[in-house]
Specification:
Layout lengths: L3 H4 L2 H4 L4 H10 L7 E5 L3 E5 L4 H9 L4 H10 L5 E5 L5 H10 L4 E5 L3 H15 L6 E5 L2 E2 L4 E7 L11 E2 L7 E8 L1 H5 L4 E6 L5 H6 L2 H5 L3 E7 L7 H8 L3 E7 L4 E4 L14 E5 L2 H8 L10 H6 L10
Parallel strand pairs: 3-4, 3-10, 4-5, 6-9, 10-11
Antiparallel strand pairs: 1-2, 7-8, 7-9, 11-14, 12-13, 12-14
Helix pairs in contact: 6-7
């Protein structure tokens, strides 16, 4: 039997019927393999329910709720959005709906298999009226353009988000991938929101976006950082004029803190932060209680009513 602490989570309190799926998964685990899964915000995402992202979608209806919600609140129709480290495309699809038909999303995913799934998800989304133009790039981001080694750890069988740019060790394998820079691809286009999750190479990606950072062309940056306050990443962003907030959740809604070193993420979650050149706007958008990404009305509010068969 599940304890109260296990179910006192936003995705169960706001969507109690999701508990039935969780219980079902405990008794009859879903078969591994990529399949179309419904997400709480009103779409379908192809993912593997036996791996981290797919398992989270299957059992809770969302993946990384705090990041999902902050993207949904910050992205406006017509915005240009960057998804650095797109994986299967969950956040890319969310951004595509939020930015609407006059917006643009540019997504990078270097892993060949994950890029193939990303392509499928984006192809499906492109058939839906009212979504942004999406440019998907089978490359990694870094400090310079060229090529790099993408290391594939042996334990990626259960977590398909662990590939990283670096040197191979132990039983890991690697594949050579293209390397691009934000400045080289985006140029002078203003970026409203950038989501950055690149398994430890965040500093290199930001160095490759230094022209955009220095010119103040990236308004909000949502990023993962296991070091947190005082890291090279946070120091670079602070030097470029950003104010940095840790991100977390309560049952009631989003939580943000600007106190150095305060971690709001749960123990089992990666710590995420948002760096903003418009902190008052950020706080205003994120102060309202509730969860827009735990309701299918998120999609219907951003798009005309659609037949869900179009997602399949």
């Amino acid at each position: 039997m599940m304890q109260w602490q296990q179910i006192a989570k936003p995705w169960y309190v706001w969507r109690p019927w999701q508990l039935v799926r969780r219980a079902s998964a405990a008794w009859h685990p879903p078969s591994p393999g990529y399949t179309s899964l419904p997400v709480a915000w009103g779409a379908f995402v192809i993912a593997d329910p036996a791996k981290m992202i797919g398992k989270s979608i299957f059992t809770t209806g969302v993946y990384d709720l705090s990041v999902s919600e902050i993207l949904a609140r910050l992205i406006e129709p017509g915005d240009t959005v960057v998804d650095a480290g797109a994986n299967v495309g969950y956040m890319t699809m969310l951004a595509g709906i939020a930015a609407g038909p006059t917006g643009q999303v540019v997504s990078w995913e270097p892993h060949p298999e994950l890029f193939s799934v990303l392509q499928q998800n984006v192809t499906t989304l492109r058939r839906i009226q009212g979504t942004a133009e999406i440019d998907i790039r089978n490359a990694a981001l870094g400090q310079t353009s060229g090529s790099a080694e993408l290391v594939l750890p042996a334990h990626m069988e259960s977590n398909d988000g662990l590939a990283y740019i670096g040197e191979r060790s132990g039983s890991a394998t690697s594949v050579t991938v293209a390397l691009e820079t934000i400045d080289g691809v985006i140029g002078t286009t203003p970026i409203a929101v950038m989501k950055l999750d690149v398994e430890g190479t965040e500093l290199a990606v930001l160095t490759g976006a230094r022209q955009a950072l220095d010119a103040g062309r990236i308004r909000h940056i949502v990023f993962e950082d296991h070091v947190g306050a005082g890291s090279d990443v946070t120091q670079l962003l602070a030097a470029c004029g950003y104010r940095i907030f840790s991100i977390g959740w309560s049952v009631r809604g989003l939580q943000l803190s600007e106190r150095p070193g305060e971690r709001l993420a749960a123990e089992y979650e990666a710590p995420n932060y948002v760096a903003s050149l418009a902190p008052d706007d950020l706080l205003q958008r994120c102060s309202a209680p509730g969860w827009s990404t735990l309701s299918a009305s998120f999609r219907t509010n951003r798009q005309p009513a659609l037949n869900d068969d179009e997602y399949l």
